């Protein structure tokens, strides 16, 4: 297990987290100091952030109190910093990055409360916009009420670092119990459906998909519960067939667990709960087709070579990337990845994170990000070292994928897949070969979207950051790239 306690040479001060943990356990400073075999004065200095939390003391805390050392990782702090910078970016009085980091490190509960208040304010604004649109009024903004359930679902997975242990463990046990073989799971899953659930699998054109079963919008999977028939689209490759079969089995074999997870999330809308059930079923399917330990061992052995992993397990590029972003089991962690799928217009249709990388929910993403270059070089894997405004550097892998839907003249779905990780993990990936990982000038400066990016000299800036548009005239000349045209 890799524990990242520091970013660069920065000391790790975790006094507030340690004090909160102590108070949750009902311990005094003297009692905890005795358990950790340190002096009460030393413990007091740690809690007051006068002394850093060292690795030996952290390991004693883990042993004495039975807590995961990742609780003291700075990844959660980095997520809070990124979210706070976006939330506070539009304030009339700028909030310095140092103050934001201090708030995230020493008062994380207050920071999360601020984010919750901001989220509720945005939802109220979105509901007002939607109501104004229905009444024929113009509040100066388009309605955003419809995507709100999707935001809730993304937050559900984001809070879990894109790892759902209950479903992952169950899928792995079932893979072994059913004696499935990596890369050849479709037949075994179909046999399970038939023998245990009485479901017959038919691989032909689904009925009732108007305009031709292979046309635009035709479903990939149709289940008739009365007839106990599961119809799969003939367009599916073997790996895609296995995934669809596993998704159907998710509802039949893990339906109780999926319902419990969705019901316990406290969603505000029924639609968010329904979408989460689908997301959890897809998660279970990926975990069943690509069982955790087998897949992690293969990934480590092949240095995370996506194409070779795809051939070994019989699945496509996108499926491998999505699964790589979920390998965060506490006792067997893979590289923490951020996974994203975008179209040419910059619409993000999938976004999953096992790390702290953050893209804005406001105003698009960064055109300097290599995921957009992937459309210009179809099928080729592109690599990029990219540095965010907060100084963090990432290795990004991007490639375009095409989802064929039918015959001649019918449009294809084309996306770009991005998979990124923090620079300190880059050496574990085959894609780091030939890159200047130690060169501070090598990374491309990118941002989380123009509205929240504070790089004034960026040649691709489309509009100023939130709050800059009303600045004095003498400051506006810095943003000529978007003002000229």
TrEMBL record:
Recorded superkingdom: Bacteria
Domain HTH cro/C1-type: 18-72
An annotated GO cellular component: cytosol
One example GO MF annotation: DNA-binding transcription factor activity
Any Pfam family hit: HTH_3
CDD domains xrefs: HTH_XRE
Keywords: DNA-binding, Transcription, Transcription regulation
PANTHER family: HTH-TYPE TRANSCRIPTIONAL REGULATOR (PTHR46797), HTH-TYPE TRANSCRIPTIONAL REGULATOR SUTR (PTHR46797:SF23)
Stated family: Belongs to the short-chain fatty acyl-CoA assimilation regulator (ScfR) family.
Name of the protein in its database record: HTH cro/C1-type domain-containing protein
Lineage of the species this protein comes from: Bacteria, Pseudomonadati, Pseudomonadota, Betaproteobacteria, Rhodocyclales
